[in-house]
Amino acid sequence: MSNPYSIYGVSDEAASIASEAMNAVLPVFKKIDEIKEINQLRVLEAFRKCKFSDVHMGSTTGYGYDDMGRDKIEEIFAEIFGAEAAYVRMQMGSGTQAVSAMLYGVLRPGDEMLSVTGKPYDTLASTIGLGEENYDGSLRNYGISYTDVELKPDGSPDIDAILGKLNSKTKMVFIQKSRGYTSRRALNGADIESICKNVKSYASEHNQDIVIAVDNCYGEFVETKEPCALGADICAGSLMKNPGGGICTTGAYVCGKSDLVEKVAQRITAPGLGSHVGPTLGFNRMIAQGLFLAPHTVAECIKGAVFASKCFEMVGLNTSPSFDSVRGDIVQTITFGEADKLIKYCQKIQACSPVDSFAAPVPGPMPGYEDEIIMAAGAFVQGATTELSCDGPLKAPYIAYMQGGLVYEQAKLAVMLTLS
Length: 420
Fold this sequence. Notes:
The protein is α/β, with parallel strands linked by helices. It has helices spanning 12-49, 68-81, 95-106, 122-128, 159-165, 189-205, 258-268, 284-314, 339-351, 408-419, and strands at residues 85-89, 112-115, 145-148, 170-176, 211-215, 234-238, 252-256, 318-320, 332-335, 373-376, 389-393, 399-403. Strands 1-7-6-5-4-2-3 form a seven-stranded mixed beta sheet, sandwiched between helices. Strands 8-9-12-11-10 form a five-stranded antiparallel beta sheet, with helices on one face. Helix 1 runs antiparallel to helix 8, helix 3 (95-106) packs across helix 7 (258-268) and helix 9 (339-351) crosses helix 10.
């Protein structure tokens, strides 16, 4: 058949565009597969080196003391992420919770947090205490100050401006790897390594302890090194995103220096209990298997994003990153310029989902966000953005933030139907 997708409603014209796009993206797909192979072997080697066994897939209840499976999984995470220790728990229900715990665990009253990637996304801004509504219990409530440095116009870190903002109160330099609801590009490993090198040099010269913390959400396994292997002291993310491999139903992680990770654990549980508490309730198998599958799943996500970028670029829309750009996360943006087109695109993503394909998402308010949000997520796990999803705030220039895709073919069909 000249257009095998016609039975799904794809027009011949859209199929032709997709065919031309496929020819252009094949070299990019080859590079994605090369990164996937490196990461998959790294993950496999970590499981082998740490001697993971079927006994580690058991379960604990109650306090969860001496859970050998949990401890082994955290050992594997630390090995993969280039860290001294890891805290991997299903008791953390989102990436925002893990990142917030990282901030509260490290920072103390009188400290200053310097965000070197501009203002963080809305939900984390609430944790910090930014905006008109100063939430009770925010960092600002606890006497922790905040300042930031914008990225350069090309999306790279402004090292001179960062060094100019560092002072005796600076306790944390914070890096948000992904873009949030902005039009900037994601940071890549070279960006993070440059920030870490320069900040650590400053800290050494001034005999000052500055913690470099990274919000790693959406960025895991997109490149061959994670933030701690690039010089960061601590990083955090969600198991419902990349490292969960598309099968984790909840959970998050923190990786980094042992003392810092334990401070975060004590924030989640209680001082004196820290990482010793936390029953796994049968989740060990799922977390371990999800981590093992993660490099392959992330590669599928990126292929869908690359294909979407090229197709929409061909019909005159602004996409970021471009199909052949170096990527730091799995997020793809498409600027539609009109609210109606953004809504319709999210509805088409939903229609191509295995769950709730018959539902039509509509914009509405969401906790922690300033604007109404349109969100398509026909996923097996609620909010799992490793599964194909798309969302965006209802404000100009009406950008769709597309991410995930357990299988590339699903994203390909959704894009082709939208073109049709």
